[in-house]
Amino acid sequence: MTTRPQQSHDYRRIENAIRFIEENFRSQMALEEIASAVHLSKYHFNRLFKRWAGVSPIQFQQFLTLDYTKRRLAESMSILETSLDAGLSGPSRLHDLFVTFEAMT
Fold first, then answer.
1. Cα separation values, 85 from 34, 41, 63, 66, 79, Å
2. Cα Rg of the chain, angstroms
3. Taking the model in full, what pTM does it have?
4. pLDDT in tens for each of the 105 residues of the chain?
5. How far, CA to CA in Å, does 30 sit from each of 5, 12, 27, 36?
6. Are 21 and 64 within 8 A, CB to CB?
7. Are 50 and 17 in contact (CB under 8 A)?
8. CA 9, 24, 64: angle at the middle one, nearest 5?
9. Which end of the chain is less packed: N or C, by CB atoms within 10 Å?
10. How far apart are CA 86 and CA 66, in angstroms?
């Protein structure tokens, strides 16, 4: 059974990870890079993040990216410019995000 001090420590790690992802999501970081920022292996970090946040760290990063691109598109930015500004490799990656999370193109 997990002790309270361990739970508190895990909470702070996930809080720091969320902050790190929010500040750097446009870099489209790999799981290893995010896990390294909170000094955990990618496997342990992925399980811990899912337990505390309910989604994987990469899904969280994708949600942030999608929200950011929606706002940029609402400002009448082009799809290409929006995709690149969000750190994506191109419009096809933005299309994939919309299909995956919004079920629309």
1. 20, 29, 15, 12, 10
2. 15
3. 0.88
4. 557 888 889 999 999 999 999 999 999 999 999 999 999 999 999 999 999 999 999 999 999 999 999 999 999 889 999 999 999 999 999 999 999 988 876
5. 29, 21, 9, 10
6. yes
7. no
8. 90
9. N
10. 9
